[in-house]
Amino acid sequence: MQIKNKVLKNGLKSYYFRIVLNGRPTMKSGFTSKKEATNAYRAYKVAEANGQLESQKTKRMKFSELAEEWLKTKAKSVKPSTLVKIKERYKLHIKPYFAGMYLDELTPIKAQKFVNHIASKLVGYTDTLDIVNQVYKKAVQYGYLDKNPFDSVDRPRTKKAPVKDSVKFYDKEQLIKFLTSAYNLYAKDHYSRYVFFRLLAFTGMRKGEALALQWSDINLVSKQLTISKTIVTTADGEKVSNEAKTKASNRTIMLDNDTVKVLSEWKYRQHEQFKELGYPSSPCEYVFNSATNSFITLGKPRNWCREIAEHAGLAPIIIHGFRHTYATLAVQAGMDIKQLQYQLGHNDVHTTLQIYAEVTKKQKTETASIFSKFINESNIKSNI
């Protein structure tokens, strides 16, 4: 340490020194005495050792700023349809709550209040919480915070969904009733709608996979259907993705004879419809074509489904419920779980087991009678 001085125009001495801080040489001046300059030098060195220099301090950042950067990064690792859902959750449930808030303003107590807030509002609140949690993990990673305030929060029990006049899936009798109703409603003027639900019910296909189907994907002679595309939702709207949902979603499945007949009938009718419009051959590649000869949007089948269910006197079912229905009935029919995994296009067999482990009411009530019948046939009598 070397303290120097110089005489100013007014005749007074001004003390200064050169110092290296964070590897960069700098000069500090304007001290009125050597003692003041010496104390300042030592204070700078102590501040440097403790990370308290202004140049060492990390700039404060608002939650919204880091969240926007996180969303840009997330866009590179998820499908467009998944990103749309994440952005929607962020916009509706996160952005308003954290508006104007700096990352370091959120204490563990405030974090718990946010968790309690969304848990009271949302049925599946954990998906929204995970977004905020990941943003704060990045805040720690980038040095804006020393600790994630969500590490110590308690997660309340998820809120139960309100009871709706609907079911998750149909049993055998209900499915037959639904398809019969679909045929009666649409066989004449909208035959493709019946074909759509017939295909879902007898193949376990996803809705987006069925709507993306082209006639080139179906071989009616060999009774094979190849799935390699799906409809996805992006920021610009819906489009056909040439990538299936997962690697295992790319599959070729066999069709039963009756479904082949139904598809053949629809292909003939579609061709005749275009002939009436003056086309020598069908200009539409899609099995289920819209009025503009493109694919049908994802929301349309929901309205058809509700209309059919009402006509049949059944509780409504979401379109995904037909996969659940297919899986349940396939297990009842004796299909091997690995065969079912392939048919549904699941990457992991555990997904098949977890999602479709439920059984119909009929199976549940039959369990006791099956066991009782077995015991009685063994001629074992009760001692009671």
Describe the structure.
- This protein is mainly α and 384 residues long.
- It folds into three domains: 3-56; 63-141, Tyrosine recombinase, N-terminal domain (DNA polymerase, domain 1); 172-361, Intergrase catalytic core (hpI Integrase, Chain A), CATH 1.10.443.10.
- It is built from 14 helices and eight strands.
- The strands form three sheets. The protein has a three-stranded antiparallel beta sheet with strand order 1-2-3, covered by helices on one side. A three-stranded antiparallel beta sheet has the order 4-5-8, with no helix packed on it. It has a two-stranded antiparallel sheet with strand order 6-7.
- Helix 3 crosses helix 5 and helix 6 (172-186) packs across helix 10.
- The longest helix has 20 residues, at 257-276.
Shape: elongated
Binned, the helix content reads: 40-55%
What oligomerization state is this entry in? single chain
Distance between the termini: 100 Å
**If classified by CATH, what would the architecture of the largest domain be?**
Orthogonal Bundle
Strand content: 5-15%
- In CATH, the topology of the largest domain is named hpI Integrase, Chain A
Structural class comes to mainly alpha
Can you count the helices?
Answer: 14
Strand arrangement in the largest pleated sheet: 1-2-3
Order of helices and strands: EEEHHHHHHHHEEEEEHHHHHH
Strand segment tally: 8
CATH top level assignment of the largest domain: Mainly Alpha
- Report the mean per-residue pLDDT as an integer: 84
Spans of 5+ residues with little confidence (pLDDT < 50)?
380-384
Radius of gyration, CA atoms, in whole angstroms: 33 Å
CATH level 4 superfamily of the largest domain: Intergrase catalytic core
